[in-house]
Amino acid sequence: MSNFCRFYFVTWNVATKSPGQDLNSLLDFPSQFNKNKSLPDFYVIGLQEVKSQPQNMLMDSLFTDQWTSMFNKILCRQGFIVAKNIRLQGIMLLVYTQMKHVINLRDIEAQYTKTGLGGLWGNKGAVSVRFNIYGCSVCLVNCHLTAHEHLLADRINDYNTIIKEHGYHLTETSNILYHDYVFWIGDLNFRTHHPVTSSLSAEEIVDALQTVEKDKYTSILKYDQLLAVIDSGEAFSEFMEPEIRFPPTYKFHMGTDDYDLKRKPSWTDRILYKVIANNYENITLRADLISYHHIPHYTVSDHKPVVAQFNIKAFSNFTVKTVEFAPIVRIWYIGDADFRTECTLSPDVEINPNDWIGIYDANFHNLDDYIAYEYLAKVNLTQESLESGQPRTITLSFPVGSGVRTPGFYRFIYFSQPNNDVRSVLGISEPFEVSSKEDSLVAIDPCVEASTSAGGASKPSTATTDIFTDFTGLDVAKLSRHFSNDLSFD
């Protein structure tokens, strides 16, 4: 038995520019002419040359860049959750998932490798996010490799360095190539390179592009450096690429669709993939291509964005270890000493000392946006509860003033965290209401109170204002993390 998850990939070198154009069509969002179009299960957005402040990397980490803010505005308002993001100077990878998949995300981990200046500088290199979903391992890589036509050997070396140095904590998927599915996107910077005997100028390549019929670029792609090194086995030989049926994506004059003839037009921006099809006895894994193309009308950069969609096959009957939160049927009041939750762990859940439960806004947009948290280590666990093999019910109390200071609706989320770098979502509670004690003095119809406290028919309001409107530019995840740490829970 199997099911499919649809992944939508974007790679774009944004040349340190601001968004400047509406990004809805980049994400292939439903329009007024096609309102019933279904959305992907995951969006994977890889950017290169996002404006960075290398002289002040702390500011880069504290404040969300304009691109991330724009993607958040679009995707989070459609119900997508930021599962993980990672940034290495100008190289950024954003992974969004539909809410229904969050509870099945396991062993989420991010990694990076610097290749600039011999590994000392992060202007070139790769970032990645890996996780397990429905029994399959997925690794997503975004890279920016060495530039310039004549530095092919450096690009080959970049690839092999990333493969060698990029590592993860899970033994069975400690290497990028060990995952069931690998998608490698980015500005790979491979150029169009002709032999000296038949060398074409940039002008001649542009002229040749004008004569291409029905997106058949074979005659020009035979000089593509990436396809050559895949064929020779020097780099990316483990990967496949869908047929390229779009013109070179680099280099353009900013704000136009005209090639900048200072460089030979090249397919620098690519999306590659790898599948270990026969990793399991009872299922053959596969990635089915839906589309692979560029989007020419974006002109803010000297690169055109490239997008692809795939359906990947996963297990439909895969059972995961879970944590069930008991329903909260009463309104909690800010400052209550009895701010606690009860949850039941399935028999196969192993409790790690670093496991924790976070309090989130009911309509949270990012797994890092916790308001407060407590470690499971704070619970007096019996030996029986530590041993797996039977369901266990535990109660976790949050101290007075633990961060919930605004009336509204919230959720609990249980994270398994065997170490500081790997995280799994094991349980999410239904929304519950927190109110101020002043509000309790106001007469309330008990029937209304009962229906809202259980998170029933009325839609939960968010506990905070829309962070993407009022605090654009602030990385709320970082700020809330500092806030929790200031409380000295641990």
Question: How does this structure look, described?
Answer:
By secondary structure, the protein is an alpha+beta fold. It has two domains: 2-315, Deoxyribonuclease I, Chain A; 323-486, Immunoglobulin-like. The chain is 18% helix and 31% strand. It has helices at 57-62, 66-76, 99-102, 152-165, 202-210, 218-221, 225-232, 383-386, 437-440, 446-453, 467-470, 476-486; strands spanning 2-13, 42-48, 80-88, 91-98, 105-116, 121-133, 136-144, 181-187, 269-275, 287-294, 306-315, 323-325, 332-333, 339-345, 356-361, 372-375, 392-398, 408-419, 422-428, 432-435. A six-stranded mixed sheet has the order 3-4-2-1-11-10. Strands 13, 15, 16, 18, 19 and 20 form a six-stranded mixed sheet that branches. It has a five-stranded mixed sheet with strand order 5-6-7-8-9, covered by helices on one side. A hairpin with a 2-residue loop joins strand 18 and strand 19. The longest helix is centred in the first third of the chain and has 14 residues, at 152-165. The radius of gyration is 25 Å and the shape is elongated. The two termini are 44 Å apart. Mean pLDDT is 84; it is low at 441-490.
